[in-house]
Each structure stands twice: as C-alpha cells, then as structure tokens.
C-alpha cells in the first residue's frame, strides 16, 4: 500500500488561506494526500474564514493555527510546500529537507480585506472559491 503524500500549505498567520487550502485538499484529495498548514507568526483562525467555509460544509471552528518553525523542529517531512501568501513568507520560512517541490499560489490576505462585514465576506467567498479551484486544478495536473 502506498503512503499518503504529505503537503504543507504556508501563509503568514495560518489563520485563513492556508487553513482553507488544507481543508480543501484533505477533502478533495482523498486518502492519497495528507495536508497540513502552518504560519510564520500564527494567529487565531479568522472568524469570517470559519463562516465562509461553513457555507460549503467545512467546519474550521475547532482548527488551530500552527507554527511552521514548530513543524520544522519536529522534523516533519513534506513532499511539497505550497505558499499561499506574499513572497516575503518564503524568505522567513525554514527549508524543509526532502521537499520535492515548492509552489507559490498568491492569494489576498483575508485579514486585510476592506469594507463592511458584508463586503469582506463577499470578497472572502471569492478568495475561498479561488483557493478551491486552485486545489482542484493542482489535483488534476498532479495526478496526471
């Protein structure tokens, strides 16, 4: 039996984008993948992220933010590391030994979205849907 492929999603705070990507890959990728997420400076999960993910049936209410540096110190190994934030995060993160591939999928930071709550939620739904589409696209190309 083949071992699951380990993928790490990274953003600055592990409070939004990486959490969404992790949830989507763990659901859509099936047992072939084990996704985790971490941040450079972890913060609590953004409640608006929890809300828009709940709309699709994903419960992130109990999710916790993790530190990429803790994962590194624990010796966790990943086949791929996917950065879902600005380039600066890559410069702040440790290099994981054995990583076959590093990808960069930039998405806007949910914590910096302007406007009213309704406007932020609408923009966040767009980011959520872009992340899901990117995971689906990656799964199709990665499996072929």
TrEMBL record:
<feature type="domain" description="Phosphotyrosine protein phosphatase I">
    <location>
        <begin position="5"/>
        <end position="141"/>
    </location>
</feature>
<keyword id="KW-0059">Arsenical resistance</keyword>
<dbReference type="Pfam" id="PF01451">
    <property type="entry name" value="LMWPc"/>
</dbReference>
<protein>
    <submittedName>
        <fullName>Arsenate reductase ArsC</fullName>
        <ecNumber>1.20.4.4</ecNumber>
    </submittedName>
</protein>
<dbReference type="InterPro" id="IPR036196">
    <property type="entry name" value="Ptyr_pPase_sf"/>
</dbReference>
<keyword id="KW-0560">Oxidoreductase</keyword>
<dbReference type="InterPro" id="IPR023485">
    <property type="entry name" value="Ptyr_pPase"/>
</dbReference>
<dbReference type="GO" id="GO:0030612">
    <property type="term" value="F:arsenate reductase (thioredoxin) activity"/>
</dbReference>
